[in-house]
């Protein structure tokens, strides 16, 4: 019987899946303090962007190194999102299902929040720059590549939509995201960001 090589597609697939699970676990653990979510996203995207370029060999080690390096700037970038997001959630809870100009305005602000939150940390993971310029570049890229932006935001919102759906949908998807969902979503988006960043470099 012919022996399978470690380069066989099956073993490569299992190895990649194992990496996704480990990265997902460490990502969730580093998000627990909440204030570290921005840094965790930056670190995750740095690893995923390297995997897109086939430059990643030790993803967990690279994640920890990136988390340490991006701690200061990642926190500075995340704090405005945390504060504004909290205010927007309060508005949604306060408004309920009421349809008004205020409600429409809140919906627009939530959309802008989601777009910026989807771009700022991948941009920070790819480019060394000031926080101000990262936000400016993120806005420019999001508008210039708007079709990709819609898809990226949708991928990021899938767990939120599943949570809001509740019931069987939430019960089915929760184990997936607790196991490898967030890292897989970042991997999908990294493919899109890789193409966007290539045009900007």
Would you mind describing this structure in some detail?
By secondary structure, the protein is mainly alpha-helical. It has one domain (9-200). It has eight helices and no strands. α1 (9-31) runs antiparallel to α2 (37-52). The termini are far apart. The mean pLDDT is 89. Keywords: Membrane, Transmembrane, Transmembrane helix. Pfam families: DUF624.
Keywords, separated by commas or semicolons:
201 residues; mainly alpha; 8 helices
Secondary structure topology:
Blueprint: H1 9-31, H2 37-52, H3 59-69, H4 71-95, H5 101-126, H6 131-144, H7 146-165, H8 167-200
Strand content: under 5%
How do the SSEs run, as a string of H and E?
A: HHHHHHHH
- Name the overall outline: globular
The count of β-strands is 0
Describe the sheet with the most strands.
none
The tally of structural domains comes to 1
> What oligomerization state is this entry in?
single chain
- Secondary structure class reads mainly alpha
Low-confidence stretches: none
- How many helices in DSSP terms? 8
Mean pLDDT: 89
Radius of gyration: 18 Å
Terminus-to-terminus distance: 49 Å
Roughly what percent helix?
over 70%
Transmembrane segments: 20-45, 78-95, 101-121, 142-170, 176-197
Protein name: Membrane protein YesL
Keywords: Membrane, Transmembrane, Transmembrane helix
InterPro entries: DUF624
């Amino acid at each position: 019987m012919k022996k399978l090589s470690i380069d066989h597609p099956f073993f490569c697939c299992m190895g990649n899946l194992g990496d996704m699970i480990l990265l997902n676990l460490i990502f969730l653990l580093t998000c627990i303090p909440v204030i570290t979510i921005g840094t965790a996203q930056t670190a995750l995207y740095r690893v995923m962007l390297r995997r897109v370029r086939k430059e990643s060999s030790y993803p967990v080690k690279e994640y920890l190194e990136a988390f340490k390096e991006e701690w200061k700037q990642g926190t500075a970038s995340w704090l405005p999102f945390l504060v504004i997001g909290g205010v927007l959630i309060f508005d949604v809870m306060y408004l309920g299902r009421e349809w008004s100009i205020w409600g429409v305005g809140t919906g627009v602000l939530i959309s802008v929040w989601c777009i910026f939150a989807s771009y700022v940390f991948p941009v920070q993971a790819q480019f060394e720059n000031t926080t101000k310029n990262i936000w400016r570049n993120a806005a420019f890229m999001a508008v210039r590549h708007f079709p990709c932006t819609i898809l990226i935001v949708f991928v990021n919102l899938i767990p939120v939509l599943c949570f809001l759906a509740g019931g069987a949908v939430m019960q089915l998807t929760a184990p997936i995201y607790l196991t490898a969902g967030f890292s897989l979503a970042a991997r999908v988006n990294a493919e899109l960001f890789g193409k966007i960043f290539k045009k900007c470099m």
